[in-house]
Predict the structure.
Amino acid sequence: MSSREPAQVIESVRAHFAERYGREPEGVWSAPGRVNLIGEHTDYNGGLCLPIALPHRTYAAVATRDDGVLRVCSLQSEAPAEVALDDVSPERPGGWASYVAGVLWALRREGHDVPGLDVVIDSVVPVGAGLSSSAALECSVGAAVSDLAGLGLLDGADARARLAQACIRAENEIAGAPTGGLDQSAALLCDEATALLLDCRSWQTEPVPFDLASAGYALLVTDTRAHHELVDGQYAARRDACEEAARILGVDTLREVPASGLDAALDRLPTDEMRRRVRHVVTEIDRVERAVAALRAGDLDEVGRLFDASHASMRDDYEISCDELDLATDTARRLGALGARMTGGGFGGSCIAIVRTDAVDDITQAVDAAFAERGFTAPSSFAVTAGSSAHRDA
Ligand code: GLA
């Protein structure tokens, strides 16, 4: 985790704003990255997910402009962008700034009066680590626009869910990533010390207690530093396969296939690959329900077993793991983790493990050593607790 404290980042992003634009920002807003505890690739199937917000956040210093222009730069990027709001499209401004411009575009599409903005971004959410740096970026700016334009989209769960939908639209229609809504919902709706049970059919949410520390455990995140890119074809291919399977089965989404009806559904699918994709989704939704029950009952052993089963399903049936993720999860398990799984879109990125608090250092070192032995890029591991959703900081 970055050694920079929130207060330092807020101060620094304000100072950069003043330096770059020659005036003070009207405020600083932030939104968190997330880890999904379980329920992977279920969101675009109308299923269940169980994310927590990370303590790592993306900060946006923002002030309005009266000429309908967006100017945005990031301390993590060499490429500032400028675009008239009327001209925002999948091609303009393009690149990372499309995640910012897309949010303004989507809010305007929904009929909101959105002003031009000057924006400076600074982030401690690791980029490309499967921890939702893009949604943190979208939602930090979404939170700022909501406040500055008086849209009230941070006022309560229903309003926040509407802002999440605008950020999802931005990502799907302007940034061009066909993602499912888990990340933006997590950034806007999670709460401290709890996980968020997210139903991606009704978009209803429920808090679930998530306090490993009082039981002597920690959630250890390992950023494997392996490649992770959602705009490439693999994620879209998984989504297409699920939608095709739903069509064949005559249901709107795979959420409608109950675990008890899985075998009968699989018999109706044409290929082994499609059967394995569907088996992952249906069993994963079932595992979310079981994990929620286990967390409510304080049964961390069971949560750990479900983590392991989820990872095996993603490795073998959904085929979205990779050698680095398998090595990190295997190593954590070998050193006594209750369970370990990749989190996020897959094909690289991060994994999570439930480990005894006093084993965090040993497991971190063992994972580092295992990666060095295989010649992989050095990973980065850090323990996290559940943080808060998007809000105004200053
Ligand atoms: C990425 C996407 C999410 C979700 C996860 C997998 O993080 O952005 O919408 O599909 O992958 O669970």
